[in-house]
Each structure stands twice: as structure tokens, then as C-alpha cells.
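Reminder: ligand-aware prediction takes two inputs, not one.
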Amino acid sequence: MGIEIDMIAPSHGAIWRNSGVGNILDAYRGWGLTESNDTAIVVYDTMWGSTEKMASAIAQGIIDAGFEVKVYHLGKSELSEIVREILEAKIILVGSPTINNGMFPSVGGFLTYLRGLRPKGKVGSAFGSYGWAGGAVKAIAGELEKTGVMVVDPLSVKFVPGADDLAACAELARKVVDAAEMQER
Ligand SMILES: Cc1cc2nc3c(=O)[nH]c(=O)nc-3n(C[C@H](O)[C@H](O)[C@H](O)COP(=O)(O)O)c2cc1C
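Here is what comes back for the chain with flavin mononucleotide:
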């Protein structure tokens, strides 16, 4: 419409002024057009380290399949930074140990935040360690699907992952990258 914008002041959130206006409009243009790069984001939390071992094996599998990867431990990372990275990535993998038949609270909070942003055109999966009946991985997969992510073969491992389990993590990474590449065509 050819209108010069000095300031964008939404009803909630940050106010954008001066050069910030151009930057945020460019960013939204990219997000809105679902432009994404060949990057996978691996987000997880863990109590004793088993889900973390899975996250590392998946991350290595992603690199071996030719994508870049960024790994975020929810307990140590800034939510807004993770979500910004996800909007620009093709792949999102979310991991959690099972606690009380469900996912870890930090993972639930993250997925709630992510759902609100309705990321488009993403491929992903869920993974995590459990002790007896599990529950976290299925719950995460369900949440990702509700968010609009195309979910590929969620993976659960009983307690500490062994060599076969870590190989399954690498295989999951490859399948998710394949699915992302297929989606592009
Ligand atoms: C407080 C607590 C609650 C748990 N609840 C469950 C459960 O409901 N079902 C289950 O299968 N495992 C349960 N577990 C077992 C963990 O999922 C298991 O130890 C898992 O390997 C932990 O993964 P992590 O090393 O990534 O934290 C529970 C563990 C803890 C400490």
C-alpha cells in the first residue's frame, strides 16, 4: 500500500521502531512464506541422561544425512530462541523421558508455546527414554501432529539406550531428513 511505517505497536509483545520495523517485516515475510533452511532442531529434556544420549545420536544422524542441526536442552536454553530457530528450520525433533505416564513438564510448556505459533511445513518426530509403560513419546507425537508437524516414526527406548537403540536413533534421523526432502519436491 506504499505506507511508510515508523512503528509497529501490537496489542501485546514488543514494539518495533525505526530499522526494527524493516527487520521484523522481513522476518515475518519469510515465516509466512514458510521459507526454511536445511536445518533440524532437536529439543529435549532429561532427568538422568538417557534421552540426552538419544538426542546426541539423532543429531549425529542428521549431520550424516547432510542437514545442519541445532540441539537445545530445555533446562538450559531460552524458549524464544528455540522457537525462532524452529520457524526457520525444516525439521523439529522433540524428546522427553516419561514421568508419571506423560512428558516432562518443560517439554509440555515448550509444545504449548510452539502450538501457538502454528509453524508450517515442518517434518519431525518424538523420542525419549522410559522405565516401564512409557507415555511421553506418544503424547509428544500427538501434540506435534496437532501443531501441524508431519510426524515420522516416533522412537521410545527403555532406560539407558544401548548400541542398537543408538543405531535406531540414527535411522530415525535419516528417515526424517528423507521425509523433509520428499516434502520439498
Ligand atoms: C519421578 C519419575 C517418574 C517416572 N515415571 C515413569 C512412568 O510413569 N512411566 C515410565 O515408563 N517410566 C517412568 N519413569 C522412568 C523414567 O522414564 C526412566 O528412568 C527414563 O530412563 C529416564 O530418562 P532420562 O535419563 O532421559 O531422564 C519415571 C522416573 C522418575 C524419576
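The chain has two domains: 1-33, 37-184. Residues 46-51, 97-101, 129-135, 159 surround flavin mononucleotide (CB under 6 Å). We will return to this case in the review session.
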